[in-house]
Every structure is written in structure tokens, then in C-alpha cells.
Specification:
The protein is an alpha/beta fold and about 150 residues long. The chain has three helices and seven strands; from the N terminus they run E-E-E-H-E-H-H-E-E-E. It has helices at about 40-55, 70-75, 85-95, and strands at about 5-10, 15-20, 30-35, 60-65, 100-105, 120-125, 130-145. Strands 3-2-6-7-5-1-4 form a seven-stranded mixed beta sheet. A hairpin with a 7-residue loop joins strand 2 and strand 3. It is elongated, with a radius of gyration of 18 Å. The termini are close together.
Length: about 150
């Protein structure tokens, strides 16, 4: 990152809050999704990263300009073996003159398969005992737009 001069940042966490309830039996299971665009999660994440990385005048850090369908298109590229295909995202960053792309994206967690990628609320009830937590599942990656490879 020290050699990065023009950095673009994009968060693809989205505006959906996931709710998951796991009961003692399958009949007690429930899940829901709630749109929370007023939280502006992506905007807050992008502004926070820009504020931290932009503290030096040797580097320009801005938000990657993109259309609203980018997150859905990225999600469609995911495969269990290959992960995500970043070539369109990297091409967009190059078109905007960036040498580095910072990407914040939802991730899966194999040890907690009931948790949906992104963020939400999880509750598990078993024989009268209950555990609850808010969660977030995401990965922040830095890519060189020249090589297309993840840095670090």
C-alpha cells in the first residue's frame, strides 16, 4: 500500500439486515431480511476507509463510482471452488485511474453456515436456553489494478 498513489474504495455490503432464528427443532427455525437503506452501511464504510487512508497527502483516495447493480453482478460470479471473479471490478477501477482497489465484501463463514453473508442478528434457542448476537461477516481486500492480484 505504501506505493499506492490513486486508491479507490468500494463497499458491497448492501442494505439488507439478515435475521436468523434457530429453534430446538426445524419447526422453530425462522429467517427474515429487512431493507435498511437509511443506515447507509456502504457509505459509512467507504468514508471510514477514505478518512484513514487519506491522512497522507501522498495518496488520493476516493469512492469507486459504479452503478447500483454491481453488488448483484459480483454475487453471481461466486463459485465454491474459484470464489469471486474480480475482473470487471478491477477494469472499472482502472478506468477511473486507480492503481489500487480496496474492496469490502460480504463473506461466508463455514463454521456458522446459518449466518448469511453481510450483517444481521442471530438467535439460537435450545431447550429453553437462548443465545443472541448481532454479527457481521465481511472481508476487506486490497488489489493492484495493474496485476489484478490481491496485495499483502
Amino acid at each position: 500500500m505504501e506505493s499506492s498513489k490513486r486508491v479507490v474504495v468500494v463497499s458491497l455490503l448492501g442494505d439488507v439486515f439478515h435475521g436468523i432464528q434457530i429453534g430446538t427443532t426445524v419447526f422453530g427455525n425462522n429467517s427474515y431480511d429487512v431493507a435498511v437503506p437509511e443506515w447507509n452501511i456502504d457509505g459509512v464504510v467507504e468514508k471510514t476507509i477514505i478518512a484513514q487512508l487519506g491522512r497522507t497527502s501522498a495518496r488520493s483516495v476516493t469512492v469507486l463510482q459504479h452503478d447500483p447493480g454491481l453488488r448483484a453482478r459480483m454475487e453471481k460470479t461466486w463459485t465454491a471452488i474459484g470464489g469471486y471473479d474480480y475482473k470487471d471490478l478491477l477494469a472499472l477501477a482502472r478506468q477511473q485511474g486507480a492503481d489500487t482497489l480496496i474492496l469490502v465484501r460480504p463473506s461466508r463463514y463455514d463454521n456458522a453456515p446459518a449466518h448469511k453473508p453481510g450483517y444481521g442478528f442471530f438467535e439460537r434457542n435450545f431447550m429453553g436456553l437462548s443465545r443472541r448476537c448481532f454479527y457481521s461477516l465481511f472481508i476487506t481486500s486490497a488489489f493492484s489494478t495493474a496485476s489484478g492480484k490481491e496485495m499483502g
